[in-house]
Amino acid sequence: MSDNKIDIYKRIDAYIKGSLSENEINELWVEFAKRPELLEDLELEVSVRETIKKKFESEIKKVSKITSLPSWTWHAAAAAVLLIVVGIQFFQVPSKSNLEQFLVNSIKSDQLETSDGIRSKDMMMMKADSMLNLGFNEFVNGNNRRALILFNEVISEYDYEPYGSKAYLNKGIVYYNEASYDSAITAFEASLIRVDDSKMIEEKAFWYLGNALANTQKYEEARTAIYQAYSLEGIFRKPAFLLLQKLNYDLGYSEAESAGD
Q1: What domains can you pick out in the chain, each with its CATH number?
Q2: What 3 state SS string does the chain have?
Q3: Which burial class, exposed, middle or buried, applies to 207 when counting CB atoms under 10 A from its CB (0-12, 13-18, 19+)?
Q4: Is 196 left (phi over 0), alpha (psi -120 to 50) or beta?
Q5: Which end of the chain is more exposed for a tag (fewer CB within 10 A), N or C?
């Protein structure tokens, strides 16, 4: 284990023990926002702990009704539940952390959808692929207007799969980076309506849709979209986990309610 991870775990332990200041707690969550890969082991632990918590809650109810058991049995079970609950509390993002720290600032060009690399003999499909690639090049070179024209042309002439969902996703990314979040939301939703048998496009659309919704203060809708991205268990699962916890905290959802989504 690297020294950095050891330091993170020490800080987590200090937080659980209540020995971190509010500033230190916020700094810790910012670290997770910057490096969501640090949650790989901890996220698994949360899921396991939640299952164990429910198990112990059930067992405690049974133990409390059986007075013939030694007193240490009750205390041991109660202590175990307390430890589990305290551990889970760590994953509720502190209220003073800014939501913006968990949102995507700008979407990288490699998230745009281009041709699949397998050329069809159908000339129309070849043209649609080429237009997606040209739109990508325009975006990379900072020509957003030209990129949008090309993506709209794909939608107008080849609005069938996989081109429709790709073009709308790309439009959403362009609008998102321009902070035109309402237009981005419309585009991402259109991509989701059209997508057929492409988990990658679906995951991207849900993830960026959730971010766009959060940027327009539509937090309940953002929570739903982010949960969908998280559930797909793809490349955005870890950052989606972080953002989902932050939204759950800000919206006042309990752990039990969150687990029941």
Answers
A1: 3-97 (no CATH), 109-259 (1.25.40.10)
A2: CCHHHHHHHHHHHHHHCCCCCHHHHHHHHHHHHHCHHHHHHHHHHHHHHHHHHHHHHHHHHHHHCCCCCCHHHHHHHHHHHHHHHHHHHCCCCCCCCCHHHHCCCCCCHHHCCCCCCCCCCCHHHHHHHHHHHHHHHHHHCCCHHHHHHHHHHHHHHCCCCCHHHHHHHHHHHHHHHCCCHHHHHHHHHHHHHHCCCCHHHHHHHHHHHHHHHHHCCCHHHHHHHHHHHHHCCCCCHHHHHHHHHHHHHHHCCCHHHHHCC
A3: buried
A4: beta
A5: N
- The pLDDT tens digits for 218-236 are 999 999 999 999 999 899 9
pTM: 0.66
